[in-house]
Structure prediction request, 147 residues.
Amino acid sequence: MIPLSGDIPSAKGSVCEKIDSNSIVRGTSTLKRGFAHMLKNGVVMDVTTVEQAQIAEEAGAVSVMVLDKLPSDVRKAGGVARTASIRIIEEIMDHVTIPVMAKCRIGHMYEAKVLDETNVDMIDESEVLTLLMNIITSGNGITLLHL
Prediction:
């Protein structure tokens, strides 16, 4: 059982902001533990469209993970997987009431920040997503990898 009381005031990642006369604390350990507890023993469905997310919600899924491609499509595409479109993520969030999760590449803080700005319920840093590498060869024969 995950204890949901007795929050740690300085939990890693917690942010306090002042809105009018109210102090709002986001990212507390109670919130993080509560979210994990809510998903426990539930089904999280992989979706790529609003329609799939609505079907998952109606079928009783506790959350949806918005993907660029479903795993079977990733295999067909030669193993290339990317973060889902921000537009699709926002559309799904507008049409379902269950938590919406999205993936970004491990260590890619910019991708995580962009996802955070959408107010997605959870961001999963995933090794499943393919590295985006551009190989640049300069005129002097030096090859650079741009990630």
User: Anything to note?
Assistant: Residues 132-138, 143-147 have pLDDT under 50 and may be disordered. The two ends are 41 Å apart (CA to CA). The first helix runs from residue 29 to 39. Helices lie at 29-39, 50-58, 71-76, 86-95, 109-117.
